[in-house]
Amino acid sequence: MSPVIRETRTGRALAGAAVVMTALALAPVSASAQATATQKAQAAAHETKQETKEAAHKTGNVITDSWITMKVHSQFVPENVLEKSDIDVDTKAGVVTLMGTVPTGAGKTRAVAIAKATDGVKSVNDRLRVVPEAEHGASATANKAGNTISDGWVTSKIYADYIDEDVLEGSDIDVDVDAGVATLKGTVPTQAGSARAAAIAKATDGVKSVRNNLKVVAKTPKT
């Protein structure tokens, strides 16, 4: 065998080894990149799902009075200016009525602004009263930390936890909290929805007990 041929084969062997070593070196990076890509895809899918659900509620007859009430309440929860508030939200034919108390004029203004900006709301009746450091009495209860929270806040928190629950889509739930006792009325499409609604309410800080009066009414298939 000529030296030239031997040298060529040796060079090919070395080149092949280099390719294998390069592939092995890159393998962890590729796996990591694939994992990252998967996480990003999952996050994007979740975000798209939420946007799709929100868009669905913005289309015509899909928006119901109960959904508006739920949405308004849920938007109250993260507002610092509404802490110590005790707000009741009532919606009829897209007209929202706000009743109860707020600790400051700024809280009153913010609550009304939130309601007015909610999809499906035609107008807002503001019947809120400004009561500095309001004493809620029987309409308040103590949370796990021993702090007093209003029934209105507990109601808002329950609604906030309902709004992204897939099993509760198509539900028409009315939440009434009195001295920490949450009463659930209205309809849900499945028994699983009824159980989930009750479980969420029971787990909400400030809730002492739950009366589940929800009725299971299956969705009517669209034709």
From TrEMBL:
<dbReference type="InterPro" id="IPR014004">
    <property type="entry name" value="Transpt-assoc_nodulatn_dom_bac"/>
</dbReference>
<feature type="signal peptide">
    <location>
        <begin position="1"/>
        <end position="33"/>
    </location>
</feature>
<dbReference type="InterPro" id="IPR007055">
    <property type="entry name" value="BON_dom"/>
</dbReference>
<keyword id="KW-0732">Signal</keyword>
<feature type="domain" description="BON">
    <location>
        <begin position="64"/>
        <end position="132"/>
    </location>
</feature>
<feature type="domain" description="BON">
    <location>
        <begin position="150"/>
        <end position="218"/>
    </location>
</feature>
<dbReference type="InterPro" id="IPR051686">
    <property type="entry name" value="Lipoprotein_DolP"/>
</dbReference>
<protein>
    <submittedName>
        <fullName>Osmotically-inducible protein Y</fullName>
    </submittedName>
</protein>
<dbReference type="Pfam" id="PF04972">
    <property type="entry name" value="BON"/>
</dbReference>
